[in-house]
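$ run holo --ligand "zinc ion" --emit tokens
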Amino acid sequence: MDAVVKRLIKEIKKEGDQDAFAELVDLYKDKVYQIAYRMTGNGYEAQDMAQEAFLRAYANIESYDESRKFSTWLFRITTNLCIDRIRKKKPDYSLDAEIQGTDGLTGYSQLAASQNLPEDQVVTLELQEWVQQEISLLPEKYRAAVILRYIEDLSITEISDVLDLPENTVKTHIHRGREALRKRLGNA
Amino acid sequence: MTMSCENRYEILLDKYLDGEINQEDRLELFEHMETCEDCAARLRELKKAVMLVQSSSHISAPDGFTESVMNSLPNQKKRVTWKKWSRQHPFFVAASLFIILMVSSLFSVWNEQAGGDISVQGSRNVAIDEDAGTVTIPEGETVEGDLTVRNAKVEVEGEITGSLTVINGEKYLASAGDVAGDIEEVDQVLEWVWYHTKQIAGDVFPAGRESKD
Ligand SMILES: [Zn+2]
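-- output --
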């Protein structure tokens, strides 16, 4: 995987090879989309953010340092974009929180409706909607740390690289995010 | 929950959940939780919250995501653009290459002809020097009617009663010389190429084919 990624990036850097870039998008699209979806809490914004992340990666590929992990660089672009987007929406946050929660439901609700799932699985989907809704209510810094730690399964060191924060700060963000989720999800 | 729980055991709980607790602290924490229901409940709730987040099913990018990204890329570098464009328009590429090849071969044929034989139409009263590539109408000589010379430099020292046409050459009119009619120099190469290109184009682009692509 790493060798493949290195080769693709060389080709992109050398001649802007778009076929190589398409392969790279295919390799990372699910992870990037997942981060964007968990951060923004809705499918439209997730697609928008994930796409923008890849476009920026392509435009700035020269600034990517090949001695570091490509995924770290790509995830940093993604989380920064999402955090910016969330902050821009802040002014009508109280109103948004509800809408955002509802938007977060659409993906799962549609899935449940379209696939005609048995009842116990629909319950699982409802539970997942609820979890996503609670994640969406976390302050964006805690949200990013929690998503990278518990959904993307990154180490504290990797998260500190992605978010460009000291490891202790990352830990504090995870602790606070975890504590907020405990209050909302812990006694379900 | 006491103040000491909030400080000391909250920190130990976080360390425990981060997988960074040492054996001594771990024993102390679990011993404490045997008597402190608050801290024990807190640990259960934290574990449950983490478990719920971790069990969120993984979401994949929507169908057509890669295509959508690729279609939004800014203008490609030229080389790549040409590569992509030529893949989409193979007919034009083939036709253009064909024309380029044909025109260049026409030029080489032309160049051979340009160095070809001198020909004179209209009079025999001229001096032809093949080596120098000249046709001379000698002083005192009169050409009746029109004269056409190909592939040579024409020196008019005598007279021409009609017109002089020089094809692929140049004329030189001596002070004594005289041409009663028009003098025309024709550089045939452009007309010739144009003529042949039209013929080729007719073969390559049969009527109606061009608009289709
Ligand atoms: Zn306690």
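-- notes --
Chain B has eight helices and eleven strands.
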